[in-house]
Write a structure and sequence with these properties.
mainly alpha; Arc Repressor Mutant, subunit A; Monooxygenase; 2 domains; three-stranded antiparallel sheet; about 60% helix
């Protein structure tokens, strides 16, 4: 749904050919999406089949044909509907690295600390890039708010990593994650724990 909103929104701003869209998303909108070129072209075909975009064909010299996509009225209506939905939605947040955290005690603590310090360094690098990008936008603009939202999430991530690294001084407590999950749900049947 968010990818559809992005593609429809960009085409509402300006008619574009597929390469322009892909390049813009890949180079300038990497903060807000992970939309890849094959998925983009799949979405464009889907939107065309639904009558939400049309395309025109052009050619310059010996270059290959270009398909320029145009938003239809149906596409504009769908964009407005998706935008209203997106702005009021409060989605559940899932972080892929939380899965690894469940199994922290399966590695030596020194090794875990090393990986988490590398993660913190990458967060700091991303924050530096964002600070540069933010400085190029006036406050109270959509681009500024989007980048600031991303910056605040990264600052929280860095603070959380600092806290976690501070707590991982010597060793991790051993804990069977399955027992922990069972304890959180009193109605779950008691698990027979395998001794290791």
């Amino acid at each position: 749904m968010d990818h559809l909103l992005l593609v429809l929104g960009l085409l509402k701003l300006e008619n574009m050919h597929g390469y322009q869209l892909s390049d813009l998303i890949d180079k300038r909108l990497k903060y807000v999406t992970d939309l890849k070129k094959p998925t983009l072209y799949h979405l464009l075909a889907k939107l065309e089949a639904a009558g939400e975009v049309t395309k025109s064909v052009s050619r310059e010299g010996n270059r290959p044909e270009r398909h320029t996509y145009h938003l239809t009225r149906a596409g504009e209506a769908h964009f407005a509907e998706l935008l209203r939905q997106n702005l009021q939605d409060a989605p559940a947040m899932y972080f892929n690295d939380d899965i690894g955290l469940l199994f922290l005690n399966e590695l030596p603590v020194a090794e875990v600390r090393g990986y988490l310090e590398q993660k913190r360094a990458r967060v700091d690098e991303r924050l530096a890039v964002l600070a540069t990008a933010l400085a190029q936008h006036e406050a109270n603009t959509p681009a500024f708010y989007t980048l600031r939202h991303h910056e605040l999430h990264l600052q929280t991530e860095r603070a959380w990593l600092d806290e976690l690294l501070g707590q991982l001084k010597k060793r991790l407590s051993r804990q069977n994650i399955l027992e922990c999950l069972d304890a959180a749900e009193p109605s779950a049947p008691k698990r027979v724990v395998k001794k290791t």
